[in-house]
Amino acid sequence: MSDLAVPSNYLPILIFIGVAIAFFTVVMFLGQFVRPNRPYRAKMAPYESGSPLFQDAHVQFPMRYYIVAMLFVIFDIEIVFMFPWAVAFSKLGLVGLVEMVVFIAILVVGFWYAWMKGALEWD
Q1: Would you state the pLDDT for residue 123?
Q2: Phi and psi dihedrals of 35, rounded to 5?
Q3: Which pLDDT does position 98 carry in this prediction?
Q4: What angle do CA 12, 17, 20 make, to 5 degrees?
Q5: Residue 48 three-state SS
Q6: Of the candidates 55, 67, 65, 103, which has an alpha carbon nearest to the alpha carbon of residue 82?
Q7: Which pLDDT tens digit goes with each residue over 1-29?
Q8: Is it true that domain 8-116 has CATH number 1.20.58?
Q9: Residue 121: partners with Cβ closer than 8 Å, 6 or more residues away
Q10: Cα distances (angstroms) measured from residue 83 to each of 24, 66, 92, 99, 101
């Protein structure tokens, strides 16, 4: 058997992927012919939250908005790392506890730094 030969265990997966791609293609093309297509002016107008547009869509957001969003994502993702630790807490023992205390200390230092720099102020 050569290195490039596909093992027989992968054959059902390849068949499944092929059927999924074929089904997707058939449904998309069939949908274009079956669905109604009657565009009119109001249907083609831009729509945002039920209110009509009152200015150009290319509005600059303040940089503080992005900083707060990035801080939220960073701290949110770091909090997610605590769930596996909580599940395996009894198996980790003292070493796991010390590692989590160091991890939380790093989070607190980062939070304190962001707070002192004023990144959490929304003015």
Answers
A1: 65
A2: -70, 150
A3: 92
A4: 125
A5: strand
A6: 103
A7: 455 665 778 888 999 999 999 999 999 99
A8: yes
A9: 64
A10: 37, 27, 13, 14, 14
